[in-house]
């Protein structure tokens, strides 16, 4: 009997080693001399292969599908991905001081920080404005006109691209070359008014790398969106719908409320109140929603410049040694104007605790309400100054130079890149200087209950602030090298090896200006500054163990300058027992180091009203200081955080029952432990002894109550490793493509996700979130019907999101449900042989309003802006021309 070594090629050291390891059954065969098939690289692996259906579930959205979708932005595109939910969009940025202007993706509901967004397989810098929890890549940085395809790896913890890809990878593949010129213009108008959008793109290119040895092209993409005000949509025009369990009105009001005792107010306009206020608790509560936008006006301009130069002999005889030098320059500018309600004024609004006083001598002092003496800290709102208007501008750059080619049968790709984002926030109107307002009120010339007259109005206007309130810069510098080759040729197929090394430096500097610190009711923006180095080494091996059966083994080692080293392995199996059936499975682990904001946000302490009672002292002492505490809360980053760690597994199949039909079903499960977050007052003061001493700081024992612990002096709510998160479900992809006939070619595609489990443990409470507010719908899908005949093309898309349990009970105290959201879009296009293209379409064909929700987490009320689009029916037309 031959030994294993005798059957291996002596000149192939890798073949000998693998053969010795695995035995003679996998001995190599002679290198095949047949014509090679075109090989492609699909996200989830860096190895080129002839079969695009890999061991990992990857959804691919082609350029043709993008053009037929009618989407005007990358954010629009990703709403068609059923596995994407729980992310962040432009509408959600209204009233959000942490990350205004941001748009981010979230695979399987694990949040934007757990989804790795790549551009041509490489990282971008994270959005510069960030909360203490950290966020990810801003989708506005990616020019949609330059996208060739989008590949979505739904299997988490990629050992190849990044072990921090906890929930998966979204890889935007840009065009690699272009010749000629192409211009497109799109206009979209909502039938109910407001929210109009427009888009213009221009692409220019020259040269063919194969024929001319070079190619240079550029893409400019300009998009703008007009505001949609709450008053333009009946379902979002008010926050006061008590019959449905919604009351988002606020005590700081105009006319101002005056506190008599706890929960008892008086107001000179009560009980009739005013058009924008509601009578409650003796006062007039302000319906702030009537002043806000539910979609902000925005403008985005992005530019991609790319050049490629062939370095080797272009003759056919030397084609295998050909190499290419390439460079990319990407720039985008996103400008967004946020309009929210007028500034609220309360006793916790003015920094330093300076009171707002209406002197008894004021000519506007209210009479007939039984008040005496100066009014201290009325609950007021600066309605005469109008709403708060803030401009957010973000510039994002990515410059890259790289080389790809073949060296000693190794396919090499290496690059140097710098990616940076700069964000700035500017006060336009409606913001006031707290100190100036307090001084102005002390004159008695400002009327918080009505018209102040010319002198008072001028005095109030002088308190308004203008200018820069926050500025941030995030930068990622990286260098990487990737190499792959077939290292053996076995009877079952080629053995392929890929290796990669990457080094990068991440930096963040996010600071508020002095102006922000003076603003009345301003958010407590903590400086977030830090930097770190990271290096990674990954290897990937594809082993054809039997004919039609292969294993993909991958391992990644990451080293962070602030955390040390961690190794993440992954195993994927692919078996195709028949031409029409493919079975696949994978398992692996992941690791996400805390982000720079999570680690290095400055820690600050401030008191807030409405804290829960002290569970140890209040039942006994009945003191206001124990039952209605207002103690300082310490929040911010935590350099002692530990990394989040994940485990994932998936198993699935791809079945082709008849020609043109495909069914892919993949079950997945993902668990994350050591999740990073902060515990709220309700958790810390729930009575659990675990939080005593760690999150609850107490003073000395009170001699009046020697058997009780001392009064609370501080609550600690800095970032910490609070708990765990688990989700499981099934991703379904169906397609049926009929052969072209006399009536054209018809297609049907469906991509859906069923969420079987979604649990979150925050340190005290274990919550089931699947099918509930704050989680994902049990089922959602995008179904596409297509038709193509000659130059004509038609597409109809249904987007379905299942209903869920609402945020709050109904008025009768019982659980209420949010209805499913079912939207149909349609488009018809004609492409002339001369290069003209005309497309007309409608989004939300049946004019479906967002279903009612009584959530109160967003500035928008009456619906959930993370779940539904408020525009209603939108008509659009696109005109384009291609010069060749």
The proportion of residues forming helix, as a percent range, comes to under 10%
What structural class results from the helix and strand content? Answer: mainly beta
> How many individual helices?
10
Q: What's the count of strands?
A: 46
User: Which consecutive residue ranges, at least 5 long each, have pLDDT under 50?
Assistant: 1-39, 314-320
The main sheet comes to: 22 strands, antiparallel, barrel
**First-to-last CA distance:** 64 Å
- The general outline is globular
User: β content, as a range?
Assistant: over 45%
- Overall mean pLDDT stands at 88
The radius of gyration over CA amounts to: 30 Å
Descriptive report:
By secondary structure, the protein is mostly beta strands. The chain has 10 helices and 46 strands. The termini are far apart. The relative contact order is 0.12.
